[in-house]
Amino acid sequence: MGPARDLHIWFTQVSGRMVELMREICASGIIMQPSERDLANPEIRQYLDRYMRGKDVDVEYKSRLFRLAHDLAASSFGRRQEIYEYWHGGDPDRNRINLLRSFDQKEMKGRIKELLQHALPHGEVR
Amino acid sequence: MAAVLTETISSMSGTLGPMTGRRYIDSLRDGREVWIDGVRVDDVTTHPAFKDMIAELARIYDLQNSDKYRDEMTCIDPATGRRISVSWLLPRSAEDLRRKRRNGELWNELSWGQLGRSPDILAPYIISALHLKDQFSAVKHPKCDFGENIENYYKYCMSHDLFLTHALGDPQVDRSTQPQNEQRTVAEDEEIALHVVEETKDGVIVTGGKQLSTAAPHSHECYVSLSATFARRSNPKCVLAFSIPTNSPGLKILAREPVSRWFGSWGHPLQMLDEQDCMLFFDRVLVRWDWLYALRSDADGEDAWCRWRQRQFQLPRLVKSVSRRGAYAPVDCSCDDGGRGDRRHRLSRGRRQARRDGDLLRGLAARDGGD
Fold first, then answer.
1. Contact check, Cβ <8 Å, A47/B283
2. pLDDT 10s per residue in chain B (371 long)?
3. Whether the Cβ atoms of residue B23 and residue B59 lie closer than 8 Å to each other
4. Torsion B248-B246-A29-A60 (CA) sign
5. CB–CB of A34 and B281 under 8 A?
6. CB of B276 within 8 A of CB of B217?
7. For an interface test with B, which of A37, A47, A76 has the most B Cβ atoms less than 10 Å from its Cβ?
């Protein structure tokens, strides 16, 4: 791992949540969009124009936008990306343990031991 | 299918018994208008995007008639003495409830728990609606009796062992200004939602879209209504509920892109179970008077209108509580306040109702010496 080890670990925690949010925002639109050939067929195009457009955008634009979201967050491709982002830096759990161990913990452990040996007087304001 | 429905509802003579695989496959070759990737599908039972799912359901339909499963997935209907699917059994005892639970368990097991819309899912909707028959009848309409419609429809589904799916939501065009949002009523949005355009002597003509209807390409009928999300309508012409044959003229079914290109391969063991999700486009579709469960007519008083809304909240909740238990129990859902209470009141009454529901179940079980 490079110098930004903490960032790397944090990213494994948020990358999955990012695409999860995208799935939540898109709702069923993320799986239900017309294909290029649906759009090219004049017999059904009239229904797509009417019922599958967005607010202030036509069906052509909306379906492209949602299909982009689909490929990022829902398709086989997108789910592979999600797995990649989680694992490509190595095992996030072990990396966190390694990060913890890379710090000098001597002083903190010493203070804890001291606290355990000399408990604070009960009820006394210091 | 429409012709069959007419014949059956008027005479109730034809009883076909529990569905078989062969009958299921043949029944889907009925001229339904299914589109996928810009192409009209001639026959869903042979099209690569649908055939494996259909074959899998046909396999389970045959299993329900096999020696191994016949006694668990089918039974004798006490009212007619004929063999029916347990999915359509009207439960009369705790034992019946246990049977229905086991039947649901088997449908789940046999489809590897992957079907959101297996053929046993919508039956409890219709059975629950049948229990509320009097309430549906209480909303009067000069052209039909909604309660009678439900009862006839239940008998029709039971005798033919039909596979229903449902369509409840509006198209996802602009979620901030849909018709359920009473503060804003944009005429254009109401045209997008399914609505009545005309009344004729045969029924109502409807136009509009529904997003989504899972399993539409391989089901027999579609239960079209409003989910709780969409139940509050500002425009009376958008208030309607009915069931309709999948092959109705003018009903266009647009399937999404398949989630697999490797159906039935051991490398993708679950992908043959792509049950599909579809847009439904209604383009001047006739809904016959005897297919309707609810219709907001201008002749309705405000009371009837309120009761209808209230039922829209009650019915899905009842079905949900029932499906969690995998069983159906009769409940008392009297609309004693005429639906005038605010929403909070309705919800709290829903909880009381659920409690009564539970008490009734426990009472039945205790009397039966079961759990």
1. yes
2. 444 444 444 334 456 899 999 999 999 999 999 999 999 999 999 999 999 999 999 999 999 999 999 999 999 999 889 999 999 999 999 999 999 999 999 999 999 999 989 999 999 989 988 988 888 888 888 999 999 999 999 999 999 999 999 999 889 988 876 555 555 455 566 688 899 999 999 999 999 999 999 999 999 999 998 876 776 666 778 888 999 999 999 999 999 999 877 655 677 888 888 999 999 999 999 999 999 988 876 555 555 555 555 555 455 454 444 444 333 333 333 333 333 333 333 334 434 444 444 444 343 333 333 33
3. no
4. negative
5. no
6. yes
7. A47
CB–CB contact A32 B212 (8 Å):
yes
What are the boundaries of each domain within chain B? 2-6+19-298
The DSSP letter of residue A54 is B
A5-117: CATH number: 1.20.140.10
Q: Which CATH class name applies to B2-6+19-298?
A: mainly alpha
A34 shares contact with chain B (CB less than 8 Å): yes
Distance CA B242, CA A56 (A): 32
**Chain A touched by B181 (CB under 8 Å):** no
Alpha helices by DSSP H, listed for A33-87, are 36-40, 42-51, 59-73, 76-87
Q: Is A23 an interface residue toward B (CB < 8 Å)? A: no
Measured in angstroms, the CA of B282 and the nearest CA of chain A are apart by 9
Which residue of B37, B173, B211 is in closest CB contact with A35?
B37
Asked whether B46 and B37 are in contact (CB, 8 A), the reply is no
